[in-house]
Structure formats: structure tokens, C-alpha cells
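Protein in question quoted for reference:
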Amino acid sequence: MAGVVRFIADLHLSHENMARRRGFSSIIEHDEHIINEWNKVVDKRDVTYILGDLSMEKKTPYYLLDLLNGVKHVVLGNHDRRQDSKDLLNYVDSVSGMVHYKGFFLTHCPVHPLELNYQDVRGNIHGHIHDKEVGDPRYWCVSCERVDYKPITIEELLQRSTPLVDPINESLKQVTRFEVIDDSGRALVRYGISTELSIQDEGRTLKVFLKSNNESRT
């Protein structure tokens, strides 16, 4: 039977400053809390993607990963040193850069919004920003403190969020005037509009369907 797939980021194991920032009295209390919360929801058949920053540029805490249940795939973060990857592989099942999983980009840092305009991309599951917000519903941050220190499934993420929308098309819905301007600044065409505007062809085409004075123009 296949296991459940989950996601989490920014473990920051044995990182003293992060432990204090998260309200723990010591790195021991911090690390034990992460291990206990992880193992409450993950069993040995489950798969967890750890989206970067396992520690703070140290390999000494890697042994703690052996205490976490399940299969572990790591997407490296900015505080995961590349030269430590060989040692890291003694404790996890894979180490990689960005992963494309079921329509989602799995990364440490959030990707540029233009990367999400492709038709087969549903969004970006990431870490790095901790308690900050991207401000775009296509992004899901799974830093430890954002998911109650428990790896989380896609279904759980979707239940937490507002419906996915295309922010470009949403902003176009607010347009009430349409103008075509030449390089001298002269308006060649000017309409007050009741219309539909749509970004199509993976962001390369703007289609404008105009209705003005009960006449249709395209």
C-alpha cells in the first residue's frame, strides 16, 4: 500500500537563534518538538518532501533525520551546503533542486510568478519565508511554524487556502476603459467598455472582446 505524501520546510535543526525565535528554551526542546510532531502524522510508508534548510549550514545535526519516520526527499535550501550533500544522503533518500510534483513546483525559495503561468502548473509549495506572506494564492509556504511542525498533504493545503485564481485575469476584470495609443501618445482607439479580457496561450496572448454602444468589436 502506497504511503501518504507530505511537505514541510525549514527544520533548522540545532539552530539556536531559530529555536529562540520559535519560542523554545533550547535547541534540544526545539528539535525534540519537531521529531515528536513529525512522527505523530508520518509512518514508515509515507513520503515527505523537506523543502530546504534542514540546518543552519551544518551537517552535525543530520543524524537527527534518522529519528523521523518515513521516506525523506530533500529539496536543497539556501542554508544547505552543497558540499554536505554526500553526508546528507546517509540519512535521506534523495537530494535535489526544484521538483515538479502533480502540477506543483516544490522549491525552497518561492519561484518567480511568471513560472506559474504555464497551463500544467497549479502552484508553488515552498519554504524560506517562514511567517511572511507572498500575497498570491498560488503559493503555499510550509515552513515548520506555518504547518504546526507537522508535514502536511496537498489536500490539507488546499483546504487551508482560498481558491486558485489567475491574478492577471482577475485584475483585467476591473478594467472599464480600453485605449490604443501610438508612439506619439495619440489615442487611435478609445472605448468605454463592457467586455471580456483574457490572458491566453500561456500568457503570450491578450484577447479583448469589446462591446460598446450595443455594437460588438473584436
